[in-house]
Design goal:
Blueprint lengths: L9 H8 L9 E3 L5 E6 L2 E5 L9 E7 L6 H15 L8 E6 L2 H5 L24 H17 L7 E10 L8 E4 L10 H9 L4 E4 L7 H9 L2 E9 L12 H12 L13 E10 L6 E2 L10 E2 L4 E5 L2 E4 L5 E4 L10 E8 L8
Parallel strand pairs: 4-5, 4-6, 6-9, 7-8, 8-10
Antiparallel strand pairs: 1-2, 2-3, 3-5, 7-9, 10-16, 11-13, 12-15, 13-14, 15-16
Helix pairs in contact: 4-6
The structure holds ligand LFNQLBSZ and zinc ion.
The site of ligand LFNQLBSZ has 13 residues, from strand 6.
Length: 346
């Protein structure tokens, strides 16, 4: 298989529809001398020929961890085309992941199980299925990728998603809980703001998401990046993703793309409640079409199930990712409240 035959969306197409025909393990050279290695269906690793003078970054872009979140998949596939066709050069190491290929093929969030609840080893805590196997495989690729970074070099992971429902803040970031002495990074706020993102949600506890895995296990700057709304392939208004596309491109192709932002100008929330569905009869008590970040008065009943009532605890407490149909034991709703940051790392 030639490099050209992987361009113009073909790497993703072959990965989705005839993964067995991919020459996994094969390495190709790009025009600027960079190499691209096919690690597995939907996973490529790119290594620059000439390393950035300001310091090599080790960057993971993942998309399609949920199969129906297509805009990030289209952005990443176009980015790969730009690299293969020589429209952009590469200055940093890049691991590019198209996550749940079978779920993309049925236009669903997942086939058997939500892959974004299976990281940090959670994939091993239950009977095997394709999503558990893929989560384990992706962890192994990320581990091997970051193993080549020295202590001073930046490790970054943007796990790109789109949200199921409308949102009062169209683009937002879930920032994993930091329990290792690190603070949130001013440089990362600058980059994410350049992606067009105004709203940031600071997690209050560990999770089993992909971005938390990279952050907690590898001390990467890892984030779940919500860029817009779920739509079928081909139906995204790509003009709404232009800032993200441009920033993701510049980060890998410039020596040190480091836009700044005044964090006081951003909208910051912290997670106040993580409400997990415990029973079959779990009910949300607001409109089905209430957008993310709709806020409520203290005492408002937000959700209930036999034996439990979940209320807003503060005026202005807002809902994010409500979904009554998640598997028992999984997160059905987050509530968030406004916050500020006292301390930041560079
Ligand atoms: O819109 C929704 O309900 C879900 C969108 C989505 O997939 N969000 C991620 C967030 C992960 C995190 O909390 O870091 C997810 O639920 O997996
Ligand atoms: Zn998602």
């Amino acid at each position: 298989m030639t490099l050209e035959s992987l361009a113009n969306g073909q790497f993703l197409h072959i990965s989705r529809f005839s993964p067995e025909s991919l020459p996994c393990g094969e390495t190709y050279k790009l025009d600027d001398g960079a190499t691209i290695e096919l690690l597995a269906p939907g996973v490529v690793q790119l290594t620059p020929a000439k390393l950035a003078e300001s310091g090599l970054k080790h960057i993971v872009y993942s998309c399609g961890i949920h199969g129906n979140e297509t805009a990030p998949i289209e952005i990443c596939s176009d980015l790969l085309d730009d690299l293969i066709n020589g429209r952009i050069g590469l200055k940093h190491r890049l691991l590019l992941i198209f996550g749940n290929l079978p779920a993309m093929n049925i236009a669903k969030r997942f086939v058997e199980e939500n892959m974004n609840r299976l990281f940090s080893g959670e994939h091993a805590n239950g009977p095997s299925n394709p999503e558990r196997e893929r989560a384990a495989q992706l962890e192994a690729f990320v581990s091997a990728f970051y193993a080549k970074a020295s202590d001073e070099e930046e490790k970054i992971h943007y796990d790109l998603h789109t949200a199921i429902r409308e949102s009062k803040n169209e683009k937002f970031v879930v920032m994993p809980f930091l329990n290792d002495g690190r603070h949130h990074s001013a440089k990362q706020f600058g980059f994410l703001h350049a992606c067009g993102i105004q709203t940031y949600l600071l997690s209050s506890a560990p999770t089993t998401t992909f971005s938390y895995y990279s952050s907690a296990t590898h001390k990467a700057r890892g984030f779940t990046v919500e860029l817009g709304r779920v739509k079928p392939f081909g139906e995204n208004d790509m003009t709404r993703f232009e800032a993200a596309r441009e920033s993701l491109t510049r980060l890998i192709s410039e020596d040190d793309f480091a836009p700044a932002v005044d964090v006081n100008q951003l909208t910051l929330y912290k997670v106040n409640q993580v409400i997990n569905r415990q029973k079959d009869d779990f009910v949300l008590h607001f409109d089905d079409d209430a957008p993310n970040f709709s806020d409520f008065k203290a005492g408002t009943l937000l959700a209930s199930e036999p034996g439990a009532r979940y209320e807003a605890q503060q005026d202005g407490e807002a809902i994010v990712f409500p979904n009554a149909n998640v598997a028992i034991g999984q997160r059905a709703l987050l509530t968030v409240i406004p916050t500020t940051l006292e301390t930041m790392d560079v």
